[in-house]
Amino acid sequence: QLILLTGASGFVAAHVLNSLLQHGYNVRGTVRSEASASKVRKTHSHRLNGDDSRLSFAIVQDVAKPGAFDEAVKGVDGVIHTASPFQMQVDNNERDLLDPAIKGTTEILKAIRKNAPQVKRVVITSSFASIVDPMQGIRPGYTYSEKDWNPVTYEQAKSGDGGTAYCASKTFAEKAAWDFVEAEQPNFDLATICPPMVYGPLDHDASLDHLNTSSADIFRFMNGSQKEVGQTAFPAFVDVRDVGEAHVKAYENPQSCRWLVTSGNFQYSDVCEILKRTLPEYANNIPEPTSTPKVRTYAVDNSHARDDLGIHFTSLDQTISDTAKSLARLQEQA
Ligand code: NDP
Q: Which domain of life does the UniProt lineage start with (predicted)?
């Protein structure tokens, strides 16, 4: 089977690609340029077992452009859509976050309906951002699950800070996908994956100057720029390898639903403690874990992902120590 993987150059997509190849799928990745295609080929060539034909590329410069995916979808059996901006600091919420997230999602669905009637299943990378209600804060005693939706309005998204706009971009993109399926009754089923903060090893062509947002969230505790542990903005996490696997398992599962994929809660004090233990040579840069007391926060229910997708979620210790080693390797090469 040939799977179209959008945004193949990204942090999460690198692990979706790993899992797809490992499960025997052939992959056509969408990237913005030939240069980006070469980088993905380089980072993943050792996973092709000498058969380069298993990985091909289609250039899609901007997912929000009308007809963006019309060519890329032709001839594929299934689609996994990860491409979407994950940034918290932008100049224009609508242009930089909301449009690419929402239009990117509707464009791929329209392209499939138009040019790929053979596609039976589509998996979209949504986010815990489309589940959590940020206005409720850390909400001790509450347990979030797939039944929850972020109640943000489009007006709040347009004028709010970058974090609000990012969370809204994922919420409206996922809603647009479910609305499309309900209104159009296309040939394919839809499933969405909703991860909270994704950490773990960086298997894409990463650079410390342009780290993806969630890896940068850990690196700031290693490079001396973060002096205090501070409050944990989104106290739930998942390992990127589990997210990769979840996309493939969701592709193979017949249910049309959303899955909250998470190992559970965490706080930055735990992260700093693990970093100090894993990287003693960075210890002076890392804030004292005890400097910020732990607080009680909301809980997250991963039972559906465990039951339906059979995922054994990775521990925080494993995830953060592997993130740390991966970032330290990048630092050594810099
Ligand atoms: P990355 O920034 O590493 O990846 C984003 C990918 O999307 C890149 O391939 C990027 O291409 C592509 N992209 C973004 N905007 C456009 C556009 N307008 N046109 C074409 N391509 C575009 O971030 P992540 O890997 O972290 O994010 C991947 C997905 O996972 C996103 O949907 C994100 O919302 C979701 N997610 C991530 C979480 C995390 O903690 N990392 C948590 C929950 C969800 P390029 O590299 O060329 O810019």
A: Eukaryota
CATH 3.40.50.620 fits 2-198+239-262+301-313, yes or no: no
- Say if residues 136 and 142 touch (Cβ distance below 8 Å): yes
Instruction: Name the nearest CA neighbour of 240 among 224, 218, 255.
Output: 218
The C-alpha atoms of residue 314 and residue 81 are separated, in whole angstroms, by 24
Asked if 239 contacts 319 with a C-beta cutoff of 8 angstroms, the reply is yes
- What's the ipTM? 0.99
Count how many Cα atoms sit within 13 Å of the Cα of residue 117 in the half-sphere of its side chain.
2
Q: Is the CB of 246 under 6 A from ligand 1?
A: no
Q: Is the CB of 282 under 6 A from ligand 1?
A: no
> Of these residues, 103, 110, 170, 249, which one is catalytic?
170
Judge whether 5 and 17 are in contact, CB under 8 Å. yes
pTM for this entry:
0.98
Cα 330 to averaged position of ligand 1 atoms, centre (Å): 20
Distance CA 220, CA 88 (A): 15
From first to last of its 334 residues, the chain has per-residue pLDDT tens of 999 999 999 999 999 999 999 999 999 999 999 999 999 999 999 999 899 999 999 999 999 999 999 999 999 999 999 999 999 999 999 999 999 999 999 999 999 999 999 999 999 999 999 999 999 999 999 999 999 999 999 999 999 999 999 999 999 999 999 999 999 999 999 999 999 999 999 999 999 999 999 999 999 999 999 999 999 989 999 999 999 999 999 999 999 999 999 999 999 999 999 999 999 999 999 999 988 888 999 999 999 999 999 999 999 999 999 999 999 999 999 8
Looking at this protein, which amino acid is placed at residue 15? Answer: H
